[in-house]
From TrEMBL:
UniProt keywords, alphabetically: Membrane, Transmembrane, Transmembrane helix
Keyword Transmembrane found: yes
Family matches, as Pfam families: MmpB
Transmembrane region(s): 44-61
Species in which this protein is naturally found: Streptomyces chromofuscus
Stated name of the protein: Uncharacterized protein
Keyword hit for Transmembrane helix: yes
Amino acid sequence: MKLEYAYSGAARHRRLTIEGMLWSDPENEPPKELRDAQEMLRRLGVLMALAMVLAMIVIGLG
């Protein structure tokens, strides 16, 4: 069974682009506050992982 798609016959509009990016596109970079928060959470994640490993070692020895 073949699916049917509606076709309006209208021509597609082409936008002025450079390598797929519109001239009006904003920079794809988060603000400094968000980057700082992400870095802090990344460090917290590493610290929590190390704390869990240490806790398992302490529990295993106890």
